[in-house]
Amino acid sequence: MREDSVDGGQxxxxxxxxxxxxxxxxxxVSLSTVSKVLNGRPDVxxxxxxxxxxxxxxxxxxxxxxxxxxxxxxxxxxxxxxxTWSMELIRGVQNVAKxxxxxxxxxxxxxxxxxxxxxxxxxxxRRPLGVVLxxxxxxxxxxxxxxxRAIPFVxxxxxxxxxxxxxxxxxxxxxxxxxxxxxxxxxxxxxxxxITGPEDMLCSLARLDGFRSALGMAGLEADPELVxxxxxxxxxxxxxxxxxxxxADRPTAVFAGSDLQALGVLExxxxxxxxxxxxxxxxxxDDIPLAQWSSPALTTVDQPLEQMAEExxxxxxxxxxxxxxxxxxxxxxxxxxxxxTAPPAGTEGEGAGVAAPAExxx
Length: 362
Hints:
Blueprint: E1 9-10, E2 17-18, H1 20-27, H2 31-38, H3 46-58, E3 73-78, H4 84-99, E4 103-108, H5 119-126, E5 130-133, H6 140-148, E6 153-156, E7 168-171, H7 173-186, E8 192-196, H8 202-217, E9 227-229, H9 234-245, E10 253-256, H10 259-271, E11 281-286, E12 299-302, H11 305-320, E13 328-331, E14 333-336, E15 359-361
Parallel strand pairs: 3-4, 3-5, 5-6, 6-7, 7-13, 8-9, 8-10, 10-11, 11-12
Antiparallel strand pairs: 1-2, 12-14, 14-15
Helix pairs in contact: 1-2, 1-3, 4-11, 7-8, 9-10
């Protein structure tokens, strides 16, 4: 196994070089013990390993890139794997990995905001060529540990807005919300509800801002009673839709912040005896494969999840080769018009707008 150079790395606190001999002296151990820790050797006691790791992290020691394993890996990390759109992201990473003779390993950990604290120890043992994370951000301590082991990482970001020092790939959420709402306005709808995602996720707020902007451009204001926050899953779309559609002044259209929520809206309409799109128009978000097979087929905003994951994997490989990589890539969204939207009942012959064709938005 290759031993790390005694002349070590860079102390990121002041730009001075720190040697492994200095780390060994501060830890009160031999140089060979420090080298064993660096190379992941098991024959080091836990207290000693912890002390050496703390000193290496304190000095911001950057380890030389590990020798690639026989089966190079890209790791993709989710907080949940049961969301339908996760398969689109996995497919995108797999496309790039396969083209470069690599494999993909999946990990589920943490919350929608960041991976669990124990995850980083596992990834340091696996030593993948890089990590694609599907989270809003990454805590500073996890970033430092990955940087210290020369493991590049990129966030695929359907959920938030990472810090500027974190390479990330996202999509135009505001434009997507604007496009969906304009489509409903063009059809003649004026009482439009929105069921977006969690209130602490920037993508939810961006889609809601796009919704409000479209209403404002039409001289309308969003009714606070028709603005709901869910969790992007079917159950929250169903629950909020039942409440909205039981109102005496129910909306004639609903913009859902995800296709899964939109499917919940369709089921709520069915339970209440409403026909879509005759009695209610519904627009989703994401354009997952299931959207075209719902009944009726779902009008939705296409968020290019597979392409987002491909771009993240390519960015990861550029970082791996120490090439310059963009800090942020944001892909466009487009409206896909299907059968779940139509003019409100009684307005078909009164000059209501015509459904817009699928339209690319930056």
